[in-house]
Structure formats: structure tokens, C-alpha cells
Specification:
single chain; alpha/beta; 2 domains; four-stranded parallel β-sheet; two-stranded antiparallel ribbon; 9 helices; 54% helix
Length: 226
Amino acid sequence: MSYEEKLRGYREARNAVWLQFLQAYARDFRILFLFFEDLASQALYLPVVQRFFPNVKIRSLPCRTKRDVLSLQVRISSDGPMNRRTLFFVDRDHDDFVGTPQTSTQEIFYTTFYSIENYLVTPDVVREILHQKLCVDQAVCDIDAVVANFSRQHKVFLALLRPFMIWAIFHRRTGTVNLGNVNLARIIELDANLRPRKRRSAFLTFRLQSGVSGTRIAVRQLAQLC
């Protein structure tokens, strides 16, 4: 599929969501409409929103990309009544680092971190999973020690990942980079003790999967960090 065909597909998908919204809006004025980047974001956000609005009829509309969500917000915001019944959820990504302006409006929720998934990788979530999902007994397993070890290894993981993110941010400022093609499991692995470590040729794999090359000097400098 060519780049032009992909763009056409994105535009058609955006128009399809727009039509779904208009049809549902016309049928029922009590619906609260939620726009998400994709199905994964919808799965994470929707239960939380439903908890805050237990008696409100909700219709969720997953889009394909962050750009689609923001484009639809601009389109809907021109109509005052429609805008009062919509909420939009998007990831912050690297916006703060690459100078991408963010729309300042109460209808749009931007994550504090890179993406919504970052909220799931915390000691509190690990402790909750051990207690509620896996039903681990504190008398059998030292949950505090497990959570403390997770926190230590998470810091190691972030340190390993930092140079790759610097590389990605640099190329987002000067050109394009496709992090959607990056398979993190091909770059960082867990050893027998569940400690994160870089794979061999991790930087080369990251460059190839992200679709950028860079100057020879920049590549050499980043390779030393990675």
C-alpha cells in the first residue's frame, strides 16, 4: 500500500467516525460521546469514565490516530451544543519535546506521560495485581519485596530506554520516525532473573525498525549510549 493510499484510508476512517457521531447525536441528545485513538485506549479509559458517570448513556468512538481525534475535535468544536457532549482522549507522546502545540480546552484529556499505558506500570498497579488478580497470599510471598524489586528493575529499564527515546525525539524534530514499527522485545530482554538488559545490535534494530538512519557521527554517538 502506497503512502497516498494510507492517507486516503485515514481520511475515510475519520469521515466514517464523523458520520457515526452525527447519526447517534441526532437520535439521542442525552449521549456523552467519547473519542479515543484506538481500541486499546478505549479499553483502558472507558471503565474509568463509566465509573464517574454511572447514570449517563455513553457512546465510544475509537479513531485510527491521534491526529484523527484532534481533527474531529476541531470539527465538532465549531458547534457549541455538540461540543458540550463530547470528550476526547489522546496520548501526550513527545509533544513537549518536539514543540507540537496542544489544544487547550477542557474537552481534551492529554496524558501526563507518553501514553495511557504508562499509568499501568507502577508499583501500586503491581501490588493491586498481586492482591486482587493473582490472589497472592502475603504469608506465602513477600509482596513488599516483589514490588520493591519491580521498582528497581523499572528504573533500570527506563535508563536502558532513555538513549533510544533521545534518538526518536531528535528525529521527530528534524524529520520523521515511525515508533509504531518498533518491537521493544527485539531491543530489550529479560534475563533469567527478570532483569532488563539490551539485546545484541539493539541500536541497529531500533534504527531499522524506526525507519531513520542519521549522520555517521550521530549514529556513532548514539550507538555508544545505546
